[in-house]
Amino acid sequence: MDTQNRTDVYTRITSEIIAAIEAGAGEWRMPWHHDGSSIARPINISSGKAYRSVNTLALWIAAQAHGFGSGIWGTYRQWQALDAQVRKGERATTVVLWKEFAAHSDDDAVGDDEHPQRRLFARAFSVFNSSQVEGFTPSAAPILPDSERVPHADAFISALGIPVTFGADAAYYRIDLDHIFMPAFNVFRDAVAHVGTYVHEAAHATGAKHRLDRDFTKRFTRQALAVEELTAELAAAYILADLGLAHHPRPDHAAYVASWLKVLKGDARAIFTAASKAQAAADWMHAQQPPS
Q1: pLDDT, tens digit, for every residue of 150-160?
Q2: For residue 113, is it within any domain?
């Protein structure tokens, strides 16, 4: 595929992601299975979603302080719904859920029926670790067999020459080490989720000074991380299309991008900036491939 055709494909994918977000992209879930242990992101037993922000820190601290070997948490009622029972005398840990609601301003010049102001309020929940519960047996996570691997995608990523360590509890790129850390292949939901996650982290690595020297801090200041995450996820969507693994954006791409766009509500051009940088990242990856 030549550069112009790739550009056309990437533009279409970006447009489809934007359309999916406008239609309601849903909630993003991590693409790999884990037990929520204290060194990984703690997860909620009912939704299966990872806790975020200060809640992650609060639950890590509680797990360490009390010696909990699991990072699976739930409210009293959530455990009851699973026929499990919080042991008598166990103390809960508090987490906070932020909700947004429309609040009409008293000043007609600021807010009205068509343009209500947006406000946030916090609601506290008491949660218990699975180590505090009787009658709960965690289900064994599915194991993705090596036979599901995608050889041409593995070869594409290997040609990038970015150091990687497998077997980590989460996927991330450390710029100080110029090193990618990835969960093992067999804990992912499917092979495409593995490739997409790996390429996402490789896209972060393309921003290093000795590669594309990408820096959003001057334009976006405190929101630079959000734009970098948009860039990496769009690049992953582009490369999956190039590899013939997903000709249209997967729902998880749109949901992930949507989660970061919430941080950037005041900048309608942010996704287009990210798309441009994502194309540059994808083009760099293609340039590392051996001649066909």
Answers
A1: 999 999 999 99
A2: yes
> What are 251-263's pLDDT values in tens digits?
888 888 887 877 7
**147 burial level (CB within 10 Å; 0-12, 13-18, 19+):** exposed
Point out the domain boundary residue: 109, 134, 159.
Answer: 134
In this structure, the number of other CB atoms found within 10 A of the CB of residue 236 comes to: 28
DSSP 181-219: EE--GGGBSSHHHHHHHHHHHHHHHHTSTTTT----HHH
- CA–CA separation, 266 vs 148, rounded Å? 42
- Contact by Cβ (8 Å): 127, 95: yes
Please indicate, yes or no, whether residues 103 and 155 belong to a single structural domain of this protein.
no
- Write out pLDDT tens, residues 97-146: 876 665 555 544 344 455 455 566 678 999 999 999 999 988 777 889 99
Pairing of strands 85-86, 133-134: antiparallel
List, as own/partner pairs, every contact residues 137-140 make where C-beta atoms lie below 8 angstroms and the sequence separation is at least 24, other chains included. 138/35, 138/70, 138/72
